[in-house]
Amino acid sequence: MNPNSINDNYYDLNSLQELAHELALEIKAGDKIGLIGPLGSGKTTFVQFLFEALGGNPNYQVTSPTFNLVNEYLTSKGSLLHVDLYRLQNIHEWDSLDLDSKSDGKIIVIEWANKFTELKSYFNIILTFNYDLEDHLRKIKVLRNNVV
User: Fold this and answer.
1) CB-based burial of residue 8 (10 Å sphere; 0-12 exposed, 13-18 middle, 19+ buried)?
2) What is the pLDDT of residues 131-145, one digit of tens each?
3) Which residues constitute the domain of residue 78?
4) Backbone Cα Rg of the chain
5) Residue 1 lies in a domain
6) DSSP state of 95
7) d(CA 82, CA 23)
8) What are phi and psi of 140, to 5 degrees?
């Protein structure tokens, strides 16, 4: 994969899992991945697949951290922090999460990454999800290194 590329493709559940495996090969500790998309578009499902692709226990159910804001999962490639910004009201609440002090050497995946414009440059990779109800396919745009 070109490290500075934009991909825009359609994915069913199987190919969403393949995308997670593909990204798991290139991401490393310290990377920050932003997920953007409406409710039900596949963001948490993608995190489940990424967790498994990073060597996490496939019998463990990854859940959305909507209420506790941050979940941490252990994988064979280190810790994965799964963050959900849906309920945050302002950038000060983001600051109070203090992720920078908790994230050293961890992979961070953040749902609702577009919640605050101040975070635009925070991410190495951004995935934008849209879901086609009729075809049951997700259209996912993968943006690397903030290429626009």
Assistant:
1) exposed
2) 877 877 888 889 887
3) 6-144
4) 14
5) no
6) H
7) 16
8) -125, 125
